[in-house]
Amino acid sequence: MSSKESILGAIQGLKLEEKPLPDIPDFEIADDLVEAFTTALNANKGTVASKEEIEHLISETAFSKIYSSSPAFESYSNCQVPQHAAEFADLDLAIIEGQFASAENAAIWLDDSNLDLRAIPFITAHLVIVVKKENILGNMHQAYDRIGLTKSGFGIFIAGPSKTADIEQSLVVGAHGAISLRVVLI
Q: What does the chain look like in DSSP terms, one character per residue?
């Protein structure tokens, strides 16, 4: 018997008393989840906008390529999901639905069930995510409980536009993804 086998055998032979895991308290952060979400999103360089504000943005801005999978904005979509993400390299505006959000840090959950193409939130110049107000949760503990053990090939929390900083801490917004994030709460 090798030393590895003897060590593993000794460990397996131990009769340890099972101890229950500690209870995790519910860390509620605010009474008004919409207000807390808005504050966190603003801190992340994103903004909450109304449906009318997004419609005005679309009418006043020369977006040549707009994609929407959100029923609330589908009339503005002027392109279909391509076979290859590279065909969306010039996507100006994407409007998608978020499943739920955390008021704690404004993180919005997206997965394969609401993303027709995984690259959409990253490849578009400007991103709009539509979230139902009743789907704003207090914190990330509740968010992970909501995800649970769902089987999805892809999932991500997005909490603002793309941001990066160099060694001198010069913040650059939009370097690796969307330049702006607007969230419509319905």
A: --HHHHHHHHHHH--PPP-PPPPPP-----S-HHHHHHHHHHHTT-EEE-HHHHHHHHHHS--S-EEE--GGGGGG------SSGGGGTT--EEEEE-SEEETTT--EEEEGGG-SSTTHHHHSSEEEEEE-GGGEESSHHHHHHHHTT---S-EEEE-SS-EEE-TT--EEESSSS-SEEEEEE-
Q: What is the largest CA-CA distance in the chain?
A: 76
**Lookup result for tokens 């801190």:** 43
Structure tokens at 122: 């990253």
| pTM value surpassing 0.70 | yes
* Domains along the sequence of the chain with CATH: 29-185 (3.40.50.10420)
Q: Which residues of the chain have a pLDDT value below 50? A: none
Nearest to 115, CA basis, from 69, 184, 153: 69
Q: What are phi and psi of 24, to 5 degrees?
A: -95, 120
Q: What is the pLDDT of residues 46-82, one digit of tens each?
A: 999 999 999 999 999 999 999 999 999 999 999 999 9
146 Cβ contact list (under 8 Å, min separation 6): 100, 109, 137
pLDDT at 175: 76
Nearest partner of 139 among 182, 102, 87, judged by Cα: 102
